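User: quick one, fold this
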Amino acid sequence: MGCEGYGYFDKYMVTMGSWAYLAYRFADDSIPEVPCPAQTGGYVWETGEHFHKMFGACGGYFLEFEKNADPHYDACGLGRIHRRGVPGELCLSVPFAVHPNYTIGENNPRALSLCSSVEKDGVRQYGADVSYRTISKEVSPETVTVTLENALGVTETCEITENGVSIRIHGGTGTAYEIPVFASDGAESTEIALSANHRELTVTHRGFRCRYTTDGTFADTGETVRNRNGEYRHYRAVGTDNAVHVSVVLEPI
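Assistant:
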């Protein structure tokens, strides 16, 4: 599951060994050690247009955005939410391509990520299929806020703190937020629970919980999508007035 035909592990370990060797040879032990940004958080870093990714970290959470995906491997939108110490697959580690260049057992029904969608001419259109542009970035040690707009005309504002990730969506008719919910890693199934009012969605796995809450309602679309980590069930958060708010918290049980 999740391996390319050309992705031999020995080849990539030789590459990593070469990098480690060079780093060791050029290391200067007289330079005092300090925490790197990935350890302290409170930063946003965006690549150039050729790599079209943006990364943000704060309060132990780490996010990765894809702005112009290669459809053989990725989908546009928010493709990763990790928290230090929590299994990477519990929320999302990589997005979902329709026909990926790696093994997933069968093709996905659509490209998907944590992304917005809209209803146009009776057809739902997904942010995972269109490009994004950065609107703004605000950074402090306690809070990171990034705002992006996709080619569907939907604005997605993502705030990261030690308390979790808050995502606010505003856009066109029928605006919703698409959520892949971890269901199985192939060996173990997760426990997925939806509250009676359909405003809280939780998934539990190996002593940890991913908790989604919304000011709208969650619904199971009935679709299953697959990536390198396993199977996910496709849920949707629907709000009112062409807007919806979703919060994501990763926590030990």
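User: anything notable?
Assistant: The two ends are 28 Å apart (CA to CA).
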